[in-house]
Design brief:
The chain is of the alpha/beta class. The chain is built from twelve helices and 18 strands. β11, α9 and β12 form a beta-alpha-beta unit. The chain is globular, with a radius of gyration of 21 Å. It starts with a strand and ends with a helix.
Length: 370
């Protein structure tokens, strides 16, 4: 099902050997030029009428902004159980702030495809997460009641199936209050059949330090929510050194810790639908990686004649190339790394997987899940 291109391979040869029509290989893998393959490139090979079936037993969700291209979202829908619409915010006065673009079309499209849309609530202020907003909310029950009441009316009136709470940089002193807030939301929503999930930064121990994790109590959040979304990505990130975005060994550590605090049937494991292109050499504080899509990454390798390598421990593809006299290092996801992540979720019998995000095309991934 997943074929790794070797030196000298052609689309015609692969088609003849596998009995998968060349036009189907091109379509399923979104190849810009079927006449140009690169060594190390992973191809998803499905015969006519064949499905990937990797999603069996897993709930599949993904985040998207209301300005997502409808054609890109349409590709993902057949594999999705949940669509998480990003995002609603709130003010210090407790007023709910809708996304700048209309979200109603996404809600309608999701239901038409048999996918449940969830409203995502974030403490966004000025384009960034604001832990002072979180602090103001979780320390004031009157403010909470006001926000929860507006959330309930919005979910009911717009036709959402529930809510996903994504608060990042929660202060350590607000850890228990935050979990209690999640519980109050669930208490209000559950009698009406609405689901309440919570997204959390990746942790591997109770005592782990860092501004992203110190305010998160996995056990309490697991008790107070219907599902917990592990944001198992961003080890490789914009300002960090080149490495896999979601190294499988690191993801496994987070999942194993989460299982000691949260019931497995509540755990959703995060998967990135993007990669990074770092200019080299890397200089801490100066180098800034460019975010790229997974299909874009392969096209970049093709354009520059790069050889795609595969890191066995991280279970992630990567390559280097030179453009305009500057060296680059790229890490991204392909069918092999997706297969490894889905197998990990199934190995631990987790409730499902969720993607950040659905904004970039990745047809092979969705076909694997159907």
């Amino acid at each position: 099902m997943i074929y790794t291109v070797t030196k000298g391979d052609t689309l015609e040869k692969i088609s003849q050997d596998t009995q998968v029509p060349p036009e189907k290989i091109i379509y399923d893998n979104q190849l810009e030029n079927g006449n140009r393959l690169v060594e190390g490139q992973a191809l998803l090979l499905l015969k006519e009428g064949e499905s990937g079936d990797y999603g069996t037993g897993l709930s599949v969700g993904g985040y998207a902004y209301p300005f997502v291209e409808s054609a890109v979202l349409e590709q993902a829908f057949p594999a999705l159980n949940e669509l998480l619409v990003f995002s609603y915010g709130f003010t210090f006065e407790g007023e709910l702030v809708p996304p700048p673009q209309d979200d109603q079309w996404m809600i309608s499209a999701a239901w038409e495809q048999g996918t449940e849309p969830l409203l995502v609530l974030t403490p966004f202020s000025g384009g960034a997460f604001n832990n002072q907003l979180v602090k103001a909310l979780v320390e004031n029950q009157e403010l909470q009641q006001k926000v929860i009441a507006q959330l309930f009316l919005t979910v009911r009136d717009k036709g959402y199936a529930g809510i996903d709470i994504d608060f990042e940089y929660v202060l350590p002193e607000n850890k228990e209050q935050y979990a209690e807030f999640v519980g109050r939301v669930r208490e209000r929503f559950s009698p009406y059949g609405y689901r309440v999930s919570v997204a959390v930064a990746p942790k591997t121990s109770d005592s782990q330090s860092g501004i992203l994790v110190e305010g998160l109590d996995y056990k309490l959040l697991g008790e107070n929510a219907d599902a917990v979304f592990l944001m198992t990505y961003e080890w490789g990130y914009t300002y960090g050194p080149p490495m896999a975005v979601a190294p499988l060994d690191k993801v496994r550590q987070v999942v194993e810790y989460a299982l000691t605090r949260i019931p497995r049937d509540k755990i959703i494991m995060g998967i990135p639908n993007y990669g990074y292109d770092w200019p080299m050499p890397y200089e801490r504080g100066l180098t800034r990686a460019r975010t790229i899509g997974n299909v874009e990454a392969v096209n970049l390798a093709v354009e520059n004649g790069a050889v795609i390598r595969y890191a066995q421990i991280a279970q992630s593809p990567w390559f280097t190339y030179t453009s305009a006299g500057m060296s680059h290092e790229v890490w991204f996801e392909d069918p092999r790394s997706i297969e490894a992540k889905l197998n990990l979720a199934r190995e631990y019998a987790l409730a499902g997987v969720g993607y950040w995000n659905l904004m970039r095309p990745f047809q092979a991934n969705w076909l694997m899940l159907e």
